[in-house]
Amino acid sequence: MQTTDVDLSCQILPDVLGGRIETATPLRHNEGNAATGGIWRVRGPGGTAILKVAQPPSGTAGSSWPTSDEPTHYNYWRREVLAYTTGLAGRVYADAGIAVPEPLATGTRPGGAVELWLADVPGVPGTSWPVPRLGAFAHELGAAQARWAGRVPDLPWLSRRWLAQYLDHGPSRVVWIDRDEHWNHPLAEVWPAGVRQCLRQLWERRDRYRAAAEAQPRTLCHLDVWPTNLIDDAGTSVLLDWSFIGDGAIGEDAANLIVDSVTDGLIDAVLLPEITATVTDGYLAGLRDGGFTGSPDPVRRAIAICGAAKYCWFGPAVLSRVLRDGTFGHPQYGQDEGGQAAVDRLRGLVELLAAWAGDLP
After folding, report:
1. DSSP at 173
2. What percent of the chain has pLDDT over 90?
3. What pLDDT, in 10s, does the model give residues 193-242?
4. What are phi and psi of 48, to 5 degrees?
5. Is 110:91 a contact under the CB 8 Å cutoff?
6. Distance (Å, whole) CA 142 – CA 228
7. Which residues contact 1 (CB under 8 A, 6 or more apart)?
8. Which of the 8 DSSP states describes residue 294?
9. Ranges of H-type helices in the chain
10. Closest CA to 96 of 146, 152, 134
């Protein structure tokens, strides 16, 4: 638990705290993201609030998630603050029943970092949701994105070409396998040979998949939809972390939810087929109910193409880590007990990615 550093550096306190900080508990997040200076649950005599510090570029090289002062950059450091302070985050999906934490206050620190204070939302985290609850959220997401189809707001700070920038800046750092002996290593043999070949081709032809994803119909996307960013507050879906909001493809967020439900072991990977079917059907039904008039088959294909494009690196990254380190996982979210356990657990996911990759001629 960290208390003093947060207490001394805060420029403003929301009224809900009751005038002072008693404790500040660090919350789990991607510590490799250069735009985030930390996230805490802060308690005062009046209650709790969430503090998230957005920090400007420092010039330090080597971050796996570099940030930028450029407003259209995929990881623009001020985007989430703007999403809340302009009210866009609160209204973007509200008509479909998706809420966001109430913004309480903002303050600027002497070094330029910005404090974003948000309401501490109670409820069940998305990592504990049953599959039908994920499907219900997917329906809400589809209904919301149907209303933004073809009319993404012309705001200068929304992300543009997020997927292309993400693929250019991040995943290539974690893939180093490129030879037959890597792909045919005994640890990898639990993945069928045809799947491994497809994953290898997906990585080698990733530019084609990225282009295909960018060619899909556009809507206003969250671009980081996964269970850790979801809370069920007495039946209301609350969506967190609006750092990437911007132009994206129909189906892009649905694909992300499917894959990232199981990548880090947050939800049992045995449930992946049910998650895939339930989220896809829910999203399609939501699009229809939201007024989207397109055929469902192209949307199913868009989900597949976007998922294959975004996670083109995943299969080779797993093998890279397993062969180099003997394990796999994200240090902030979970680690498998060993390399073979990781490869075994993720067989269904890489088979899904291989199948999705087959949707591109």
Report:
1. G
2. 74
3. 999 999 999 999 999 999 999 999 999 999 999 999 999 999 999 999 99
4. -125, 160
5. no
6. 19
7. 23, 24, 25, 26
8. S
9. 4-9, 79-85, 88-92, 131-148, 162-169, 180-183, 193-204, 206-214, 252-260, 272-289, 296-310, 314-325, 339-345, 347-357
10. 146
Give the number of other CB atoms < 10 A from CB of residue 312.
27
What amino acid is encoded at 127 in this protein?
A: T
230 SS3 class: strand
Residue 95 corresponds to which tokens in the numbers above? 């008509």
pLDDT of residue 1: 40
Quick one: tokens of 94? 């509200």
Structure tokens that stand for 254 in this block = 């649905």
Give the residue from 302, 281, 129 showing the smallest Cα distance to 214: 302
How many CA within 13 A on the CB side of residue 348? 17
pLDDT in tens, 34-68: 899 999 999 999 999 999 999 999 865 556 788 99
Q: How far apart are the first and last CA of the chain?
A: 52
What is the rounded CA–CA span in Å between residue 77 and residue 311? Answer: 24
Q: Is 34 exposed, middle or buried (0-12, 13-18, 19+ CB in 10 A)?
A: buried
Residues 6+ apart with CB under 8 A from 317: 171, 174, 175
SS3 call for 291: coil
Looking only at the bridges linking them, the beta strands covering 246-249 and 218-221 are antiparallel
Encoded tokens for 338: 């060993």
| Cα 1 from Cα 26, distance rounded (Å) | 7
Contact 306, 249 (CB under 8 A): yes
